[in-house]
Amino acid sequence: MRRNRPRRQDANHAQIRDTLRDLCIAVEDTSDVGRGFPDLIVKTRKGTVLLVEVKDGEAPPSRRALTPDEEAFAGRWLSSYVVVSSVGEAIALAAR
């Protein structure tokens, strides 16, 4: 069941999203979907479609861990599911 409260975004979410928007063909912000669905859907210039979970690289490791729902989602999407925790990782991701 979907909750009615706003979803919490990591502190670097907007910065990573905007960096990817500058470098990729398309970026959809899906952070409000919930239930383990990743924060962004990205299509790189090479045509690769990736599901991107944003985590705050400055947060303690316990806050960067995937939730059980995120782990299950990642397990189904395998190499199409990517966790990004910094702008540098977002830049590298855009080259895929």
**Major β-sheet annotation:** 4 strands, mixed
Secondary-structure class: alpha+beta
State the total count of DSSP E strands: 4
Cα-atom radius of gyration: 13 Å
Overall pLDDT level? 91
Whole-number count of domains: 1
SSE series: HEEEHHEH
CATH class: Alpha Beta
Shape: globular
Poorly predicted tracts of residues = none
Total of DSSP H or I helical runs spanning 4+ residues: 4
- CATH level-3 fold name: Trna Endonuclease, Chain: A, domain 1
State the end-to-end distance: 35 Å
So, CATH architecture?
3-Layer(aba) Sandwich
Question: Percent of residues in helical segments?
Answer: 25-40%
Amount of beta strand = 15-25%
Strand order of the largest sheet: 1-2-3-4
Summarize the structure in short.
The chain has 96 residues and is α+β, with helices and mostly antiparallel strands. It has a single domain, classed as Trna Endonuclease, Chain: A, domain 1. Helices cover 34% and strands 19% of the residues.
